[in-house]
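Sequence, structure tokens reproduced for absentees:
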Amino acid sequence: MARDADVVVVGGGVIGLAAAAALARAGREVLLLERNGGFGQETSSRNSGVIHAGLYYPSGSLKAHLCVAGREALYARCERMRIPHRRTGKLVVATTPSEVEVLERLLELGTANGAPGLEILDAAALRAREPALQALAALWSPATGIVDPDALCSSFAAEAEAHGAVLLLRSEVIAIEAGDAGFRVEVADPDRTRVRVDCAAVVNAAGLAADRVAACAGLDPDALGYRIHPCKGDYFALAPSAPLRLSTLVYPVPSGAGLGIHATLDLGGRIRFGPDAEYVERADYGVDAAKAGHFAEAAGRYLPGLRPEWLTPDQAGVRPKLAGPGEPFRDFVVAEESAAGLPGFVSCVGIESPGLTAAPAIAERVLELLC
């Protein structure tokens, strides 16, 4: 099999772009295929843009390890490449005695995972830091921050191309055939014209379509636990005229399929609330304006006086979750598939939060798996 590329990366979100940059920097001949008309248009850009410290994930999990490693690499990258970002810090607030107990467990877990500088603030210390908040206590995480996801994706794309990678948009993978010397990847453009690309290795970083791409290669997503359960999250923006100011990110204690409706800042200081969590059959990026009352009630538990009329629909994102409704924690999948009969095929599946933070570390892990 004559090779057109050494490695084909499927997916041009932050994970695929970071992997392409790492592989190209290491001297591999890389071709990246993205089905949309731009990079990072799905999960990568439709989120809170938070650089996570590593509070929530079971110790020893990939999410914990790659979040902490990725956090430090991401901050260094932002400084080095002047990617817009800010260390805002984060408060996880408890409004009931039982939630205070959750904060104590998060303090222990986050410290074990390597989140630095964590401390629990009492109500008075919390009020002194953020007068608008009302809670019994809060966990302060000084290493949490925010980043411009689009600028981050662009930086990885530019780095990959600078090292010789070829990045193709509007190129959807429709079949992957394994052979003795590698893979043949069949690609369709917007006119449904099909081309075939031969390569030695494939990286599946297809996000919401990662289970479909796995199936294209002959893997069984259900048997392997790779089935994606799309989980939508809506955001509402606070009106600039609203009499409410925050200087840091504010989260409730985690519950359900997400981290709860939290208050985040963008790099311009605008306040957004979200996301909620709703399992859906397919990606839908519309925001139901009628949810404003629910969002105001949820965030009003720690921001008393928040009014629905101050909130306007902002954006929605869809998480590529491996855990379905009511199911327990599922870790990232970052695995080379020799055990499944596909040597040289790397699966990056279920890369939801903290995937943005973990992207540099996931990319290095992909590189190690293909060395």
